[in-house]
Amino acid sequence: MARADRTQKEGGSAVMPMSARRSVPVMTYHHVSPSSGTGTTSPKNFESQLAWLKRFGYRTLTSMEFAAHLDGKPAPRRSVLITFDDGYLDNWVYAYPLLKKYGFNAVLFVVTSWVGDGPARPHMGQGALPMTPSHRVCGELIEQGRKDDVILRWSEIRAMQEAGVIEFHSHTHTHTRWDKHGPDGKLANIERELRLSRQALSDNLGVASEHFCWPQGYFEPEYLSVARDAGYRYLYTTRPYGQNRPGSDPNHIFRFDVRNRRGDILGQRLWVAAHPVVGSLYNRWQLWKRRDRSHA
């Protein structure tokens, strides 16, 4: 057995091998679009990021491979998980063809009640493209009932899943933060959200997985049992300052937002996130800074 893959002894105590301490960074995107604004990465920078990953030998995990890592089977070196939230049209128009070009895959947490029917629209490389507005404008159109203008259709979702490029999981049915609606019926509403979302995925894709992402990453401790009862085992947050190591708690999967930067800058963030020592120190420093500011 290779030295790096076995437990070593130093001073009479067991030392965990590097592979058993290696974290898999989970990257979060919302939009890949020429429109500027919060939560948006330009197609140019997204391609730069994918090209950087390809150049330096990174591999993207499927949800099943990532689950095996959390369950205790260390993922290969330079593994990452790419995730998208909500299910915006630009994920089909720009992100999907670029992921396919570089041979990478991703996970998308979709708000199922927002998804409509109809034929697949053109994506990059297929001629005239649909408009893909900013995150703010997308929110306004969704509020106005014009979801189909900015959200994926089931036909587009099936095409991406059948191509083996993007797989789809639950981000609830309506993306409602029920904690903001008072305590009455909160858990019952969350249970309903999870059940309807799971049913929509099963009806339209033939399968509903054990992976789930909380809206805005927010959850309370009592939510966890509701999610588990609904059939979800791997629960994703928007908390960036933690590490996803083999054997980590699947109820608290850490993710960080990818900024609209070049690939080499993303590479620096990935190196820190994956390193078992540097990443841990960085996360502790960031959490200390936030606690310090909150008490200022």
Task: Give structural notes.
With 296 residues, the protein is α/β, with parallel strands linked by helices. It has a single domain (18-294), classed as Glycoside hydrolase/deacetylase (TIM Barrel). 38% of the residues lie in helices and 14% in strands. The protein has 10 helices and 12 strands. The chain has helices at residues 18-21, 43-55, 63-70, 89-102, 135-143, 154-162, 186-205, 223-229, 263-274, 278-294, and strands spanning 8-10, 13-15, 26-29, 31-32, 40-41, 59-60, 79-86, 106-110, 166-170, 211-213, 234-236, 256-257. Strands 3, 6, 7, 8, 9 and 12 form a 6-stranded parallel β-sheet that branches. Strands 1-2 form a two-stranded antiparallel sheet. Helix 4 links the parallel strand 7 and strand 8. The longest helix is centred in the middle third of the chain and has 20 residues, at 186-205.
Topology readout:
Elements: E1 8-10, E2 13-15, H1 18-21, E3 26-29, E4 31-32, E5 40-41, H2 43-55, E6 59-60, H3 63-70, E7 79-86, H4 89-102, E8 106-110, H5 135-143, H6 154-162, E9 166-170, H7 186-205, E10 211-213, H8 223-229, E11 234-236, E12 256-257, H9 263-274, H10 278-294
Parallel strand pairs: 3-7, 3-12, 4-5, 6-7, 7-8, 8-9, 10-11
Antiparallel strand pairs: 1-2
Helix pairs in contact: 2-4, 2-9, 9-10
